[in-house]
Amino acid sequence: MPEFQNKKVAIIIGAGPAGLTVADELLKKSKDIQPVIFEMSGDFGGISKTVNYKGNRMDMGGHRFFSKSDRVMEWWQNIIPVKEQNKAQSQADDTDKVMLVRERLSRIFFLRRFFDYPVTLNFDTIKNLGVVRLFKIGLSYLKIKLFPITQEKSLEDFFINRFGKELYLTFFKDYTEKVWGVPCSEIEPEWGAQRIKGLSISKALLHMLKQIFSSKATLAQKDIETSLIQQFLYPKFGPGQMWQEVAKIVQEKGAQIHLHHQVVGLKALGNKITEVVIKNLQTGEIKSQVGDYFFSTMPVKELIESITPVVPAEVFSVASKLMYRDFITVGLLMKKLKIKNETKRKTINNVVPDNWIYIQERDVKIGRLQIFNNWSPYLVADQNNVWIGLEYFCNEGYELWNKPDADFIKFAISELAKIDIIEEGDVLDSTIVKVKKAYPAYFGSYSEFSTVRKFTDSIENLFLIGRNGMHKYNNQDHSMLTAMVAVENVVNNVVSKDNIWGVNTEQEYHETKNPPKF
Description:
Elements: E1 8-13, H1 17-29, E2 33-39, E3 50-53, E4 56-59, H2 70-79, H3 89-92, E5 99-103, E6 106-110, E7 113-116, H4 123-129, H5 131-146, H6 155-163, H7 165-180, H8 190-195, H9 201-213, E8 231-235, H10 239-252, E9 256-259, E10 261-269, E11 272-280, E12 286-290, E13 293-296, H11 300-306, E14 307-308, H12 313-320, E15 322-334, E16 356-359, E17 368-371, H13 372-375, E18 386-394, H14 399-402, H15 405-418, E19 427-444, H16 449-457, E20 462-464, H17 467-470, H18 476-491, H19 498-501, H20 508-511
Parallel strand pairs: 1-2, 1-13, 2-9, 6-16, 10-14, 13-20
Antiparallel strand pairs: 3-4, 5-8, 6-7, 10-11, 11-12, 15-18, 15-19, 16-17, 17-18
Helix pairs in contact: 1-10, 1-18, 5-6, 6-7, 11-12, 12-16
């Protein structure tokens, strides 16, 4: 591995949003630190990458480029500028490096019908649910408002407190358990605080009224819950375009990026890491690289297992029991969909306007459906076709994960046909992509995670950042913010890492009266 003269070395594990943000921020804010990134895959962006299949591009999970942090919004737009709204379409198409402003729509598919997300009290909802079920929902909501659960011990308690038991059973329980594979009663309530934040029936109703009586929302949308935003930015060719561009920029500025290189060991001396051991996955060669600072986005479980000398037994035990949820996307190229666009939104070829659809049906395993045409028309090679992604949540080594690819694709097609979203004969082509450790889980040994954090925080020059790096279900912007704060700590010689862990804790980073200056 190369030696660096007159410069300190920052080893960055992973070339996802957090890792690449660290490299960019170091190059901007420090003149004497050399970023060196080791990425085990051949892609940039981690789960935010874009997969290209015969010119049809897939977004792994759906990545809205929206944040309530001005710093992140400006950062993105400095890399890829927003398309000027007053330009003619033909002029805008002259450049590929543009952010599109997209209208957001996601709905719930349940009882073979569409429901607004979040559920709104309108004629369609009343018709689809029926008066009896709606009455039960209203009654249970009033009951929980009068007699709330005083101590939320699980995600189930979290949902019931905010929506009432009947609405929880109707719209939240089955989908959430599809995602995680365990009962909501076994998941820590913190997941709800991370992902749903302040959303409740009252806020959804208030948002609905604001939409009726206010003008079109601006892109900032600072007074709107993240789950309710109406617009977002999106790179022309998907999220991976952003991270490919960032990788190009940081390399031009002097950062080194080594793809297909897996960090398999971290050597500790006292309260510092001194070097990493890296395996070249293409040649099998193993080498070491010394460093001064170490930024990790690798799964915490693997990080702890990689540190030598051996970490304390209690820390190792907790880390070894941390759980993850894996992810499979089946891409289907379709002549058309069976479901029709019955909304007022106009789309190319009148495809349904949803960015993604939550599949709440209990008789299928599919969790979510993406319509890639509606993220960006440029994700589809031929815009006369419909390009969709069927998302499944599973565990590596289990039945779904172990299905041969051809069998899984056939199974996925049959599920979507079963619930009347497609006709099997309209499938033109297909592919499958599997992503390991896509979601850090809030069960297993998660309730004891503070033991691991206390240990890693004690290592002065080790910084855990990003989703898997912190075992925290962060969005892309939150992962970037953890990287930005970590770099500021290095530059300003801040020892405590509390401000890194404070990003995306409840809503404090963007909703307090005097928020931290991220």
